[in-house]
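User: Please run a holo structure prediction.
Assistant: Happy to. Please share the sequence and the ligand.
User: Here you go; the ligand is fe (iii) ion.
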Amino acid sequence: MTDFALPDLEYDVFELEPHISGRIVELHHDKHHRAYVDGANKALKSLAEARATGQFDKLAALERALAFNASGHILHSIYWRNLSPDGGGQPDGDLFDAINEGFGTFDRFKKQMIEAASTTMGSGWAALVLEPVSARLLVVQIHDHQSVTIQGAMPLMVLDAWEHAYYLQYQTAKEKYFDAIWNLWNWEDIDARFAVAKDVDLLLGDASTRPTKPDWLPSGDASSLPAD
Ligand code: FE
């Protein structure tokens, strides 16, 4: 087992300019993201101490701290890789087809993502997720880093709507940030997540629970599972 660790960025902080300023990326990654990593590790350590001493009086608070900080770390880790100085445009292949199937058109999907990010109450995220039980792409609104989520839904593309993600550059004009970020989406990364997520079968091959089987879904029925 390893502790949570802050991942390095795969680009220099200024490379996302002019869409996201280098100073924002620097503070966001080095300070905010690091705080979630540290918070998650601290919660794990406190839980281990509670187990060792049998003192679970602070268990509920520790579980809340772990959920908040670990989720913050995971979402930010995805966010950094979702973005690229060479990003933008639209996806192609299966992901493009699945977005069209799920949302009608790419443009409607984009509008829903922006709307979900813009209307998050307090701090939160908009995310494109694959909900594996119904094999459905959804846009969800995440409160803080972990509330209003669907259990098992896998984040493919996450849009940080916390003020720390844009305020230094855009102040109250957050819609400009939500617009500019479409020049940075790394569809190769998002597509790679989609390819992994669509193989996940939370119900272990119970095909009867899937009312429809999209073309992009790999064979997920019980007969395709390994015999052992
Ligand atoms: Fe953030």
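The two ends are 27 Å apart (CA to CA).
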